[in-house]
Amino acid sequence: MSNHNSDFEFKALKMLEENPNLTQREISKELGISLGKTHYILKALISRGLLTLERFKTSENKIAYLYLLTPKGIIEKSSLAQDFLDRKQEEFERLKSEIEEMTQE
Predict the structure, then answer these.
(1) What is the DSSP string of 60-71?
(2) pTM of the prediction?
(3) What is the DSSP letter of 52?
(4) Which pLDDT tens digit goes with each residue over 69-90?
(5) How many angstroms separate the Cα of 102 from the Cα of each of 88, 89, 94, 97?
(6) How many degrees, rounded to 5, is the angle at CA 43 between CA 63 and CA 28?
(7) 8 A C-beta contact, residue 52 and residue 16
Protein backbone atom coordinates (compact mmCIF):
# COMPACT_ATOMS: atom_id res chain seq x y z
CA MET A 1 0.00 0.00 0.00
CA SER A 2 1.36 3.40 -0.90
CA ASN A 3 1.92 6.07 1.73
CA HIS A 4 -0.65 8.19 -0.04
CA ASN A 5 -3.35 5.51 0.30
CA SER A 6 -2.40 4.80 3.90
CA ASP A 7 -2.79 8.52 4.65
CA PHE A 8 -6.30 8.43 3.15
CA GLU A 9 -7.10 5.27 5.09
CA PHE A 10 -5.89 6.83 8.34
CA LYS A 11 -7.87 10.02 7.73
CA ALA A 12 -11.01 8.06 6.77
CA LEU A 13 -10.76 5.88 9.90
CA LYS A 14 -10.23 8.97 12.05
CA MET A 15 -13.23 10.74 10.50
CA LEU A 16 -15.48 7.69 10.85
CA GLU A 17 -14.43 7.09 14.44
CA GLU A 18 -15.60 10.63 15.21
CA ASN A 19 -18.72 10.50 13.01
CA PRO A 20 -19.77 7.01 11.85
CA ASN A 21 -22.76 8.23 9.86
CA LEU A 22 -20.77 10.23 7.31
CA THR A 23 -21.69 9.49 3.72
CA GLN A 24 -19.16 8.47 1.11
CA ARG A 25 -19.80 11.82 -0.58
CA GLU A 26 -18.96 13.70 2.66
CA ILE A 27 -15.82 11.62 3.20
CA SER A 28 -14.79 12.18 -0.42
CA LYS A 29 -15.20 15.94 -0.10
CA GLU A 30 -13.29 16.10 3.18
CA LEU A 31 -10.41 13.99 1.84
CA GLY A 32 -10.33 15.86 -1.46
CA ILE A 33 -10.54 12.68 -3.54
CA SER A 34 -13.05 11.27 -6.00
CA LEU A 35 -16.14 9.42 -4.87
CA GLY A 36 -14.85 6.32 -6.69
CA LYS A 37 -11.53 6.38 -4.82
CA THR A 38 -13.41 6.90 -1.55
CA HIS A 39 -15.58 3.85 -2.31
CA TYR A 40 -12.45 1.82 -3.12
CA ILE A 41 -10.76 2.84 0.17
CA LEU A 42 -13.83 2.11 2.31
CA LYS A 43 -14.39 -1.23 0.58
CA ALA A 44 -10.74 -2.16 1.26
CA LEU A 45 -11.08 -1.18 4.94
CA ILE A 46 -14.23 -3.31 5.23
CA SER A 47 -12.64 -6.30 3.47
CA ARG A 48 -9.63 -6.11 5.82
CA GLY A 49 -11.98 -6.19 8.81
CA LEU A 50 -11.21 -2.64 9.98
CA LEU A 51 -14.72 -1.28 9.39
CA THR A 52 -18.18 -2.76 9.49
CA LEU A 53 -21.15 -1.39 7.65
CA GLU A 54 -24.54 -1.30 9.37
CA ARG A 55 -27.87 0.12 8.27
CA PHE A 56 -29.66 2.70 10.36
CA LYS A 57 -32.49 0.69 11.86
CA THR A 58 -34.78 3.64 12.54
CA SER A 59 -33.86 5.84 9.61
CA GLU A 60 -36.48 6.83 7.05
CA ASN A 61 -33.61 6.78 4.58
CA LYS A 62 -33.27 3.02 4.04
CA ILE A 63 -29.93 3.40 2.26
CA ALA A 64 -28.28 5.23 5.16
CA TYR A 65 -25.39 3.36 6.77
CA LEU A 66 -23.09 3.59 9.75
CA TYR A 67 -19.38 2.87 9.30
CA LEU A 68 -18.15 1.43 12.58
CA LEU A 69 -14.52 0.77 13.45
CA THR A 70 -13.88 -2.77 14.60
CA PRO A 71 -11.43 -3.46 17.43
CA LYS A 72 -8.92 -4.39 14.71
CA GLY A 73 -9.72 -1.06 12.99
CA ILE A 74 -8.99 0.89 16.15
CA ILE A 75 -5.60 -0.82 16.49
CA GLU A 76 -4.80 -0.28 12.79
CA LYS A 77 -5.81 3.40 13.05
CA SER A 78 -3.26 3.83 15.83
CA SER A 79 -0.58 2.17 13.71
CA LEU A 80 -1.48 4.30 10.67
CA ALA A 81 -1.43 7.40 12.88
CA GLN A 82 2.12 6.60 14.04
CA ASP A 83 3.26 5.99 10.45
CA PHE A 84 1.61 9.24 9.36
CA LEU A 85 3.31 11.20 12.15
CA ASP A 86 6.68 9.63 11.37
CA ARG A 87 6.40 10.57 7.67
CA LYS A 88 5.28 14.10 8.47
CA GLN A 89 8.14 14.52 10.95
CA GLU A 90 10.65 13.37 8.33
CA GLU A 91 9.08 15.72 5.79
CA PHE A 92 9.26 18.58 8.30
CA GLU A 93 12.95 17.91 9.04
CA ARG A 94 13.74 17.73 5.31
CA LEU A 95 11.93 21.03 4.63
CA LYS A 96 13.55 22.67 7.64
CA SER A 97 16.97 21.66 6.34
CA GLU A 98 16.18 22.98 2.85
CA ILE A 99 14.99 26.29 4.28
CA GLU A 100 18.16 26.65 6.36
CA GLU A 101 20.32 25.92 3.29
CA MET A 102 18.43 28.46 1.19
CA THR A 103 18.61 31.08 3.95
CA GLN A 104 22.38 30.70 4.16
CA GLU A 105 22.80 31.21 0.40
Answers:
(1) SSTT-EEEEE-H
(2) 0.72
(3) E
(4) 888 998 888 888 888 899 999 9
(5) 21, 20, 12, 9
(6) 70
(7) no
